[in-house]
Structure to design on (98 residues):
């Protein structure tokens, strides 16, 4: 079953991220399994927020934010030929301010 990112509606306090590839192409070819996993990602979609005591706690993140994440954080999803991560907003380590 294949689907597109636009077909995904993110729930509760979840965020859909796409890792930012920190690997720079150069003269030396590095096998994909030997590369380090990047620790920054772009926010693609966010859920509406977590509901506690009948009130929605709004999300701090928004689409387009660059965030710092752990190297093995989130659950990988493959859509549109790309790999995305789905994780909870509290698991994001920080927002990159530029």
């Amino acid at each position: 079953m294949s689907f597109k990112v636009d077909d995904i509606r993110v729930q509760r306090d979840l965020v859909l991220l796409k890792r930012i590839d920190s690997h720079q192409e150069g003269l030396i070819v590095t096998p994909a399994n030997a590369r380090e996993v990047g620790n920054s990602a772009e926010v693609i979609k966010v859920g509406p927020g977590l509901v506690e005591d009948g009130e929605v706690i709004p999300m701090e993140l928004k689409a387009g934010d660059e965030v710092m994440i752990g190297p093995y954080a989130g659950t990988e999803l493959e859509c549109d030929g790309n790999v995305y991560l789905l994780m909870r907003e509290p698991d994001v380590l920080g927002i990159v301010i530029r």
Notes: The chain has a mean pLDDT of 82. The longest strand covers residues 40-46.
